[in-house]
From TrEMBL:
Ligand binding (NADP(+)): 66, 116-120, 140-145, 210, 233
Shikimate dehydrogenase substrate binding N-terminal domain: residues covered: 2-77
Binding site for shikimate: 3-5, 50, 75, 90, 212, 240
Lineage: Bacteria, Pseudomonadati, Pseudomonadota, Alphaproteobacteria, Hyphomicrobiales
Name of this chain's protein: Shikimate dehydrogenase (NADP(+))
Family to which the UniProt record says this protein belongs: Belongs to the shikimate dehydrogenase family.
Gene Ontology terms describing biological process: amino acid biosynthetic process; aromatic amino acid family biosynthetic process; chorismate biosynthetic process; shikimate metabolic process
Record domain Quinate/shikimate 5-dehydrogenase/glutamyl-tRNA reductase: where: 112-156
Keywords associated with the record: Amino-acid biosynthesis, Aromatic amino acid biosynthesis, NADP, Oxidoreductase
InterPro entries assigned to the protein according to its UniProt record, in alphabetical order: Aminoacid_DH-like_N_sf, NAD(P)-bd_dom_sf, SDH_C, Shikimate_DH-bd_N, Shikimate_DH_fam, Shikm_DH/Glu-tRNA_Rdtase
Length: 276
């Protein structure tokens, strides 16, 4: 029930004058198989899934995209000829947000540093490597999680393109990084702060944060104070919704200033303690 997807898709349905609805459906993990089997019969053209259903939905789908197959997780479902398809649009959402917020970021982007090794990090590392970043340094406090991520994606991109690093190694990698990405919950409202020194980043580096509550995280504020280009996390949420809407309703929507303002206002209403 915390999802803002109904707000986003409802805006687009009204904006484009399309008949349709986007609804909440709280579903327990043990009920997911039956729920997905009933979707098509109940008139739904598809849906989104979020934690804790992403891996299960991938496994239950009849067909999966290449991105979902590599990541072994899905967030977007639709039906084609009665078959349930699954995709992972977090990759497209992350890249589209970067493209919109820091045009040309990939020019000369040889090395990126990614903080965290969870599901979001896996999608983001995949996207960066697919876009042509030569090497991605993945930083995490638990070495096993980084090693598992590197081993899994290394099967698809070759060994050596993902470097596992501990939290204490961040400073050594930043001087060569043209992009810094935070995928952890550190810096999120009601979570511990992200304690990091970014003074070593090059002056032309881009900093982005998957966290969007608060809208301007401490990391983004720190980077702005250094004069670096920054990209907030809200755009990833909005851009990842675009492919699903297009699959379901046959029209590719746009992430407009009106939509951004609508969602920002909703976040500030829900979290007045982070108003800026």
């Amino acid at each position: 029930m915390h999802s803002r997807s109904p707000l986003v898709h409802g805006f687009w349905l009204r904006e484009y004058g399309l008949p349709g609805a986007y609804e909440f459906a709280e579903t327990k993990p043990e009920d997911l198989p039956a729920f997905l089997r009933s979707l098509h019969a109940n008139g739904f053209v598809g849906g989104n899934v979020t934690i804790p259903h992403k891996e299960a939905a991938f496994a239950l789908a009849d067909q999966v995209t290449e991105t979902a197959r590599v990541l072994e997780a899905s967030n977007t479902l639709w039906f084609t000829d009665g078959q349930l398809w699954a995709d992972n649009t977090d990759v497209e959402g992350f890249l589209a947000n970067l493209d919109a917020g820091a045009p040309g970021w990939e020019t000369g982007a040889r090395i990126a540093t990614v903080l965290g090794a969870g599901g979001a990090a896996r999608a983001i590392v995949y996207g960066l490597l697919r876009r042509g970043v030569e090497r991605v340094v993945v930083v995490n406090r638990t070495p096993e999680r980084v090693e598992a991520l590197a081993a899994h994606l290394g099967q698809h991109f070759g060994s050596g393109r993902i470097v596992a690093a501990g939290w204490g190694d961040v400073a050594a990698h930043l001087p060569k990084s043209s992009l810094l990405v935070n995928t952890t919950s550190l810096g999120m409202a009601h979570q511990p702060p992200l304690d990091i020194d970014i003074s070593g980043l090059p002056d032309d580096a881009v900093v982005t944060d998957a966290v969007y509550v608060p809208l301007k995280t401490p990391l983004i504020a720190l980077a702005e104070n250094r004069g670096l280009r920054t990209v907030g996390g809200l755009g990833m949420l909005l851009h990842q919704a675009v492919p699903g809407f297009e699959r379901w309703f046959g029209m590719r929507p746009e992430v407009t200033p009106d939509l951004i303002a609508l969602v920002e206002a909703d976040i500030l209403r829900a979290h007045p303690e982070v108003a800026q």
